[in-house]
Design a protein that fits this description.
The structure holds two protein chains of two kinds. In chain A, helix 2 packs parallel to helix 8, helix 3 runs parallel beside helix 4 and helix 8 crosses helix 11. Chain A has eleven helices and 13 strands. In chain A, strands 2-8-7-6-5-3-4 form a seven-stranded mixed sheet, with helices on both faces. Chain B is α+β, with helices and mostly antiparallel strands. Classes of the chains: A alpha/beta, B alpha+beta. At the A-B interface, helix 2 of A face helix 1 and strand 2 of B.
């Protein structure tokens, strides 16, 4: 028997889309189900019908996702186990001892930890502080990049703590002007804001499949521009090509997709992106409305403050808050226990970001808005925060 | 089911499954009769997918694939049914 976790009869309200999206839109669960029942072959391994059908389904998903993200050649849209693995591939595959990299102070541990490890191996890592809103100043970055030959500029597309959207086009321009690559962690951007990778001019862009892109966990995407060639982290079987070749192939996508792919995840992601293709505009508009209302409502509650850009400035649908007296863990516990509201307390795998905005010692309570959330959810969250602050 | 006679087909090889499926779609859209087959030794690869087509359609197929920017890694022939 399921142990009740709340004394409230109301339906659960999920507000942690910054961690993962839930529920999934129509078609995603069916696509995963089909992957396990209809497309059970190993794609690329075998030319019999079952394997071919699976291969074609993945091929179709890749092209649809590439199209949605503005990737002109689907060879350059690679499937990865997740954004973390994709960023590891790019960073460990591109950077060598002696290289210099300039990074944003708001990076998630999926970037910060590889950079820390690379620094220990002799890569010079220069971190540029974002402002109090969590936004990087492109001019300041340029002045740092210009100081010495720089291999790459690394910056998140949008913050998982503040929701702040970084000036990626400007950063890409300055990086290229100084001979550096532009590497972007797009985990919080994909699906929540319009992304056109052809126009963005970045060299590498990674994204989770399971956050704003609304797919299942266990899959992510990596865009690599032509000419951006990180060394592969994994070598092995690829299905196509010639197995007799002793070395791993360098053709894309095979070079970066050794081993059996996550077919259920990829097909689920394909279905999610097809949903977004028809619904992204309306979904994003609703997310903007709900984010604004939550931000505005929190500011009206005594003792609370909101991290990131001021009310009215653009952000992805994340609202993180702190209370002058009550710790975020207490708030999160009460919100879940009494009101069945899911929100995430702590450091959000982003100590660099918390250090930048001054919440490393306290953490914050993060709300992530997404598919399925309603105005009722936001008003319920605001009511719960108000009551909790009075009681704790 | 009757016994079919062996005859010669053209075979095209590709560097990846992705390219093979791009090619299949391109050639089917062009009205050519192509079939995906396991890769064959005559194109020096026993792995991956290849396309089998009628010999008289080979030239048209290569032209279409070149126009689409799809790289053919190998060409050969097989006796098949």
């Amino acid at each position: 028997m399921e142990t009740p976790s709340s004394d409230s009869p109301q339906r659960p309200i999920y507000l942690d889309h910054g961690a993962t999206s839930w529920p999934k839109p129509p078609g995603v669960v069916d696509a995963v189900h089909d992957a396990l029942t209809r497309y059970g072959g190993n794609p690329g391994r075998g030319a019999y019908k079952l394997a071919l059908d699976t291969s074609r389904a993945i091929h179709s998903a890749r092209r649809d996702i590439a199209s949605f993200l503005g990737v002109r050649d689907a060879h350059n849209l690679l499937f990865q186990p997740g954004c973390t693995q994709a960023m590891n591939l790019v960073l460990f595959g591109l950077l060598a001892p002696g290289d210099r990299v300039v990074a944003c102070s708001m990076e998630h541990n999926a970037v910060a930890r590889p950079l820390n490890a690379l620094a220990a191996r002799g890569v010079e890592v220069v971190v540029v502080d974002a402002d109090e809103s969590g936004v990087l100043d492109a001019d300041e970055v340029e002045s740092v990049v210009a100081q010495a030959p720089t291999r790459a500029v690394v910056c998140q597309h949008a913050g998982n703590l503040t929701g702040a959207i970084q000036p990626i086009p400007d950063l890409a321009d300055l990086a290229h002007a100084h001979g550096a690559l532009m590497v972007v962690d797009g985990a919080q951007a994909g699906g929540h804001i319009h992304v056109d990778l052809a126009a963005l001019s970045v060299d590498a862009w990674a994204c989770s499949g399971h956050k704003g892109l609304l797919g299942p966990q266990g899959v992510g995407v990596l865009y690599l521009a032509p000419g951006c060639e990180p060394a592969e982290l994994v070598a092995g079987g690829t299905g196509g090509g010639n197995s007799e070749e002793p070395l791993h192939p360098v053709v894309r996508p095979d070079r970066y997709e050794a081993g059996t792919p996550n077919t259920p995840g990829i097909l689920g992601l394909g279905a999610a992106v097809r949903f977004l293709e028809h619904n992204a505009d309306s979904l994003r508009e609703r997310e903007r409305e709900l984010t604004h209302r939550l931000h505005e409502g929190v500011l009206e509650l005594p003792g609370f403050s909101v991290l990131g850009p001021p009310l009215g400035e653009e952000r992805v649908p994340i609202v993180s808050l702190v209370h002058e007296r009550i710790t975020s863990d207490r708030l999160a516990f009460v919100l879940d226990r009494r009101y069945q509201i899911a929100a995430r307390a702590g450091l959000h795998c982003a100590p660099w970001a918390h250090r930048t905005v001054g919440t490393l010692e306290t953490g914050a309570l993060r709300f992530g808005i997404g598919y399925g959330n309603t105005h009722h959810d936001i008003e319920a969250a605001l009511d719960a925060l108000s009551r909790s602050a009075q009681e704790l | 089911m009757g016994i079919r006679s062996r005859r010669t087909f053209a075979v095209l090889g590709f560097l990846s499954t992705h390219d093979a499926l791009d090619a299949e779609e391109t050639l089917l859209d062009a009205g050519l009769d192509v079939v995906v087959i396991p890769s064959v030794k005559s194109i020096e690869s026993l792995c991956g997918l290849a396309l089998r087509l009628e010999p008289h359609e080979l030239e048209a197929a290569l032209l279409r694939l070149a126009e689409a920017g799809i790289e053919v890694s190998a060409k050969g022939e097989i006796e098949d049914v």
